[in-house]
Amino acid sequence: MISIEKMTAIEISKNIKNKKISTVEVLDETIKQIKEKDEKIKGFITVAEEEARKQASLIQDKIEKGELLGPLAGVPIAIKDNIDTKNIKTTCASKILYNFVPTFDATVVKNLKDAGAIIIGKTNMDEFAMGSTSETSAFEVTKNPWDLTKVPGGSSGGTCAVVASGQVSCGLGSDTGGSIRQPSSYCGVTGIKPTYGTVSRFGLIAYGSSLDQIGPVAKNVEDCATILETISSYDRFDSTSMRRDKYNFISALKQDVKGMKIGIPKEYLEKGIDDEVKEAVLKAAQIMKEKGAIVEEFSLDLVDYAIPAYYIIACAEASSNLARFDGVKYGYRTKEYEGLHEMYKKSRSEGFGDEVKRRIMLGSFVLSSGYYDAYYLKALKVKRLIKQAYDEAFEKYDLILGPVAPTTAPKIGESLKDPLKMYLSDIYTISVNLAGLPAISLPCALDKNKMPIGVQFIANCFEENKMIAAGHALEKELSENFVPNFSLV
Amino acid sequence: MSREYETVIGLEVHVELATKTKIFCGCKTDFGGAPNTHTCPICTGMPGALPILNKKVVEYAMAVGLATNCKITKHSKFDRKNYFYPDNPQNYQISQLYLPICRDGKVEIEVNGTKKSIGIHEIHMEEDAGKLVHDDWEDVSIVDYNRSGVPLIEIVSEPDMRSSDEVIAYLEKLRQTIQYLGASDCKLNEGSMRADVNISVRKVGQKNFGTRTEMKNLNSFKAISHAIEGETKRQIEIIEANKEVVQETRRWDDNKESSKSMRSKEDAKDYRYFPDPDLPPIYISDEWIEKVRKSQPELREEKLERYKKEFDISEYDATLITESKHLADLFEQTSDICKKPKKVANFILGELLRLLKEKEMDDSEIDFSVEHFAKLIELFDSGVINSTVSKQVFGEIFLNDVDPEKYIKEKNLMVVDDNGTLERIIDEVLEANPKSVADYKEGKKKAIGFLVGQTMKAMSGKAEPSKVNQILTKKLQ
């Protein structure tokens, strides 16, 4: 049988269509990969073998009857554990939801199932997507497939690690402040954060509702564009969902980058950035120039204010979003208590981890009377100014090119000691969420320790096609092989 | 109440809107139903579920706003009110604080012939909570989310009322207007209309308001009046004793006719309101406002004017009938069939109101068919039955919606119209009651009443009393 370990999603579905391999065989092989590798990587929280097998035989039938022709038919896909999957446990990597089984599928899961993709399991993450290393998970610490002593990044670290280690070809993550792009960069895979409102949030367990977007993680730009086109839809169950004229992500792969104007914010390259990361960005710039794009540096103000504004807005929303986890209706309830208030207090104290508690407290504080104007309203003002600054930039440029994170993946345990330092590592990704913009992260170089370095293209709202075209053009010119040494795993 | 003091009252009135489905999901809003059967992931706050606004809620809120002379907020927004309680599955209520849908309205009330305008500060939309039931036997609390997400509007008045009469007149006015709009049935006993009353007292002539208290748990107009009187007295006593009224929320106990402090201002909750990021702002265009305004049904004032012109009934009767949309609808529909508005009005204002009072029913609970009612009027008008029988039959229609024609036939209640029978019976009555005959002839004219009664009894009520009287008078001469 042919090995699927290094295949992309599109290659897998082509092989199924050409009858070189069946859906059930792909699933068997995927489960074998997971059994071999995930003991060390710890990227999955739940492997839904039984559900996947049920789906696989149904889908094989439909493919044979010619009812399923799409590019994801029969492809196993990993889903971040904050996205609702009917009959499959969905925990947000939190003790408070340790046993929660949703009664419905998130809209993205429904869209994937309709396209014939097979939900293979649920991946580890920072608890409630709060963190940048996936270490705040209540259940396990996911390892970076390139170096098992390092973190995969976060919060979608599980999805990125299982894709990078070849357990699956692709997966879904969610991005509130960089949670798809940063772990993609650390793990050497490609990830997209779409324009806010492009992908339905119905069934995404909210962290910062006004910033959250679900997006794809895969081994290349083509797969990402294909998955994004599949999961995107106007959804009447999500009132913040946008009705877009077209979802032309796959066709964007053919778009030429010649004459495209690309700006690099010079502030991004000035301080706090690792030299090798800076080199990777400049290398990407050089390649884009060679492909006929016009690349220049420009000044993007307000970078410094993005982090505080982000933590105020995201935490304020989180403090309210996470209030429903109280031990009353589902999930964890403390064993012994007297009266309602003690039940609430103990269930939440025992059920949430430190980082989540820290953000709930911060969010509750900034919304308290007397502080609302000083913090929350001011943060919203900063958000508007950041959007304005980007609007101005996009009057001049088609795309913005920059680093994803200041460094490559840190060692496990390093970041938790200093949360503030961890917050600062989101500096290049956060403002994109505040402005609601789309961005793509893709690997561009390897550092001296053979760790992958990602770069990101940021586009104006609804212009994913430009960044997909640029990412696709760039990846074709790269000589590196962004596949970790599987023997390590 | 002491004449030195005046009471200042403002109201927060919650009204459940009559939409078929809930405010943020497609579940039914029907009252009752087995616990947790009108629920879904959205109204039970399941992780990942999101709210979708029911457009009809916005239109009802606009309709009430327009009928109470409010300005409609063109960019309105929902906010989250954060507090922990198990009847609220998300532990926040979606409500409106910063940009409520309606502002700056007013309604006219009339108390003892004096007209007064009561200001409306705002009307905002929000979701209702579920219901908690404590099971003492098992010592557990059970929650029913059927009501969770039922749409509400909260109508906040200005502190413009000065007596419980004004408060009741204001509430009656709101109820009448909202019922006319069809926006709610406004039943206090089922909780589809609820009022919290803010009360303070001050010396007459004093400019500043006194410290106010908020009274909750008022389930009837009677409870509201009693609570206002009780709280006014309590506050005056505190002031007279040179103490200070504490700003607090109090709970009215209708059985004890007194209130108890629930919480004071110091431990007032901080609800940490902020705009709900799951719901985009609502933009209300001029066209939308016009559309709602145009589809506004005829309200009370217009209806009253029309009745005066269209129907041959007294202004007094028209006023009484149009006070309730239910009575007005009944009147109009019945009159349309039988074309005898005067008689219809008499029945509604006489027998119907009497029966409603006797059975302690609300006029919204009337559910007999107008066809039966109209037929009864026709039978009575054409003399097939007499007035006494018509009342008896109306009672049967009211309770069991019987077909009057069939019922009268079955029970043999038609007026006996052949003079032979009647004269024979009268002769028998005269013969059996010589004393009354003698009394009458001696000038005690009242004795005839007794004889009419005896005749009616002997006829089993099926005679026309005036006719009996006429024959008797002739025979006694």
What would your notes on this structure say?
The complex is a heterodimer of chains A (489) and B (477). By secondary structure, chain A is an alpha/beta fold. Chain A has a domain at 9-258: Alpha-Beta Complex (Amidase signature (AS) enzymes), CATH 3.90.1300. Chain A has 15 helices and 11 strands. Chain A has helices at 9-17, 23-41, 49-64, 107-114, 157-164, 181-187, 221-231, 275-290, 303-321, 339-351, 354-367, 372-396, 419-424, 430-434, 464-477, and strands spanning 44-47, 76-80, 118-123, 170-175, 190-193, 213-218, 261-265, 294-298, 399-403, 439-446, 452-459. Chain A has an 11-stranded mixed beta sheet. In chain A, α2 runs antiparallel to α3 and α9 packs across α12 (372-396). In chain B, α3 (221-240) links the parallel β12 (213-218) and β13. The radius of gyration of chain B is 29 Å and the shape is elongated. The A-B interface holds A 83-84, 90, 92, 97, 100, 102-104, 106, 201-206, 208-210, 236-240, 316-317, 319-320, 323-326, 328-330, 340, 344, 364, 367-369, 372, 376 and B 41, 44-53, 80, 82, 84, 86, 89-92, 141, 143, 270, 272-274, 277-280.
Mean pLDDT of chain A: 96
**pLDDT below 50 for ≥5 consecutive residues: which ranges of chain B?**
none
Strand content of chain A: 5-15%
Query: CATH topology of the domain at 9-258 in chain A, anyone?
Result: Amidase signature (AS) enzymes
Query: What do we call the CATH homologous superfamily of the domain at 9-258 in chain A?
Result: Amidase signature (AS) domain
Distance linking N and C termini of chain A: 22 Å
Gist of the model:
The complex is a heterodimer of chains A (489) and B (477). Chain A is of the alpha/beta class and 489 residues long. Chain A is built from 15 helices and eleven strands.
Descriptive terms for the model:
heterodimer, A: about 500 residues, alpha/beta, Amidase signature (AS) enzymes, globular, B: about 475 residues, alpha+beta, Arc Repressor Mutant, subunit A
Secondary-structure topology with pairs:
The complex is a heterodimer of chains A (489) and B (477).
Chain A: H1 9-17, H2 23-41, E1 44-47, H3 49-64, E2 76-80, H4 107-114, E3 118-123, H5 157-164, E4 170-175, H6 181-187, E5 190-193, E6 213-218, H7 221-231, E7 261-265, H8 275-290, E8 294-298, H9 303-321, H10 339-351, H11 354-367, H12 372-396, E9 399-403, H13 419-424, H14 430-434, E10 439-446, E11 452-459, H15 464-477
Parallel strand pairs in A: 2-3, 2-4, 7-8, 7-9
Antiparallel strand pairs in A: 1-3, 4-6, 5-6, 5-10, 9-11, 10-11
Chain B: E1 5-16, H1 55-67, E2 71-72, E3 75-76, E4 79-82, E5 92-95, E6 102-111, E7 114-127, E8 131-135, E9 140-144, E10 151-157, H2 164-181, E11 193-203, E12 213-218, H3 221-240, E13 248-253, E14 258-264, E15 274-275, E16 282-283, H4 286-294, H5 300-310, H6 315-322, H7 325-338, H8 341-358, H9 370-381, H10 387-400, H11 404-411, H12 419-432, H13 434-441, H14 447-458, H15 465-476
Parallel strand pairs in B: 12-13
Antiparallel strand pairs in B: 1-10, 1-11, 2-6, 3-16, 4-5, 4-15, 6-7, 7-10, 8-9, 11-12, 13-14
